[in-house]
Amino acid sequence: MGDHSKRQATRDAIKRTVKAPVEETRELLRGDGELKPGLGMITSIIALSLGFLCLLAVLAFHFPQYLTTPDLRHKYSVDVLRQLLLVGLLVAGGMSLGNLILNRQRNLSIVAFLLVIAAVALGGSRVPVGNFADHTPYIGLDWFILDLLGSTLIFVVIEKLFPLYKGQTLFRKEWQTDLKHFAVNHFIVGLALLTVNFLLHHLFGWLVSSNFQQTVQHIAFVPQLLLCVLVADMAQYWTHRAYHEVPFLWRFHAVHHSVKTMDWLAGSRQHMLELIFTRVCVLAPLYILGFSEAAMNGYILIVGFQAVFNHANVHLPWGPLKYLLVTPDFHHWHHASDQEAIDRNYAAHYAFIDYLFGTAVKSKKNFPEHYGVVGDYMPDGFIRQQLFPFRNRSTPTEPPQQEPL
Ligand SMILES: [Zn+2]
Ligand SMILES: [Zn+2]
């Protein structure tokens, strides 16, 4: 064998060794369905996901000015994040190495281990963070990593402990699309905040009265927070109802309704323009009324939790609370395509608002039979869904005729 053919043979061998793990990882990312325990699949997926997030985190340490969110990085401690990254690297490295030794999921474990090695080679948890400029354009990669880790830990546990649909798997159909929505919503957090603040100041700035705002800020914390949530939900109720009743707006909102499996990730599916428009409409009255920073922070925590929780695959015995607060049961009905659920249950925090305006679902059934848009016309895929409102004008994008209230 000549030198040339030897080199070719080595190249082919390397290609074959790398190709199989890459192919298998791609197949896994495209697939869905149940994970069978005991075959190293669960630990491989944890190692792969953690390895990938660790690599992203190392990049965020290298370029904090472009890859981290100013509002967040002023609040958290860099040392705690370093330790978190180290734990992530150890867990991902340990799990992938363990699987390699036990010869379980060899291909996936190779990819996971390579991700860990790449993260360590790029500096791991020791990347120095110096001073850097504060007013650079950025994407919220840190917010994506931390929220994905936190939400997965919290909501997967809640969904496993109190499932509404017991057989539902974590990797249900179209999870990839919703994870992309989740990621992009977090990446554009800076741009979204900037746009929302700009619109609030320019559209509603003239309505602000500092005397009135001081009166609002003097209300005690708990009633002020409850009032803040009420004002926000009233604004949310009418904005949401407009999305359902104005055909042009429905084209955007149909994206959120197209999800057919409800879980904690499902709520992320939302058109980008809806995200910005709704925030402007909901934050405008809060901004005009001038709630205190503490009340606003409390509201942001509540809305952050409920927006995810209300979509989760969870069922708890709520008792009479279900008439007062929006629960997953209540919001699941909003996503149903059953006839009695069309254009109902608009509230996001206080269920009594729908009872007050006569738009609460009245059904003899405990849970809906079908989810999604009537006619199932929404294409799958993040980009296709973002383009949907501007295309396919012939598709039935209006909500079905509702019965008189
Ligand atoms: Zn809706
Ligand atoms: Zn929803």
Descriptive notes:
With 405 residues, this protein is mostly helical. The chain has 2 domains: 151 residues, no CATH class; 204 residues, no CATH class. The chain is built from 17 helices and no strands. Helix 5 runs antiparallel to helix 6. The longest helix is centred in the first third of the chain and has 28 residues. It is globular and about 85 Å long. The structure holds zinc ion (ZN) (2 copies). One zinc ion binds next to helix 11 and helix 12.
Give the end-to-end Cα distance, rounded to a whole number of Å: 84 Å
User: What global shape is seen?
Assistant: globular
Number of helices: 17
The residue-averaged pLDDT reads: 90
> Which regions contain 5 or more consecutive residues with pLDDT less than 50?
400-405
Strand percent estimate = under 5%
Class per helix and strand makeup: mainly alpha
List bound small molecules. zinc ion
The total number of structural domains is: 2
- The percent range for helix content is 55-70%
Give the topology string: H per helix, E per strand. Answer: HHHHHHHHHHHHHHHHH
Number of strands: 0
Rg on CA atoms, Å: 24 Å
Tell me about the biggest sheet?
none
